[in-house]
User: Fold this.
Amino acid sequence: MCETETTTISAPIPVDVRAVPGGSRLELRCFSQAVIEDVLDVLLTGGEQTLLDDVIALAAMSAEDRAALPEGRMPYEDLVAALYERASKHTYLYGERGLLLADRLGDNAVNALPVGHWAHGAWDAWKSAKAEAEAEIAAALAALEGGAAA
Assistant:
């Protein structure tokens, strides 16, 4: 059974991860917003009057104009390519955030596999070893904090 909860991996641009049948769904709303902001910045303040003119011409295109295009050609292909070159294409995951994303994606992927798949055992062993290491670290930190208080 897939979980319905969403885990947010915060970074400069947050990524939400939700389990779905078959794996994970990544919510990239904030990244999409950053791309749209880049595009608007290029169109409105980037000194790219030609691109803005292309958007205006595209908006004014009639059905007949679109029908006159070569077959299989979309009226906005060149504009999309030009804006793509100027828009954000990546974000960063710093430090532990990458591990958190990998952990959540791994959980969702293993849960989507058929029962008895070899990865179930491997993932369970990894999670067990991780939990033991986290417990050892917590105990060592507690001992250090207790020793410093004495």
In short: Residues 53 and 59 are 10 Å apart (CA to CA).
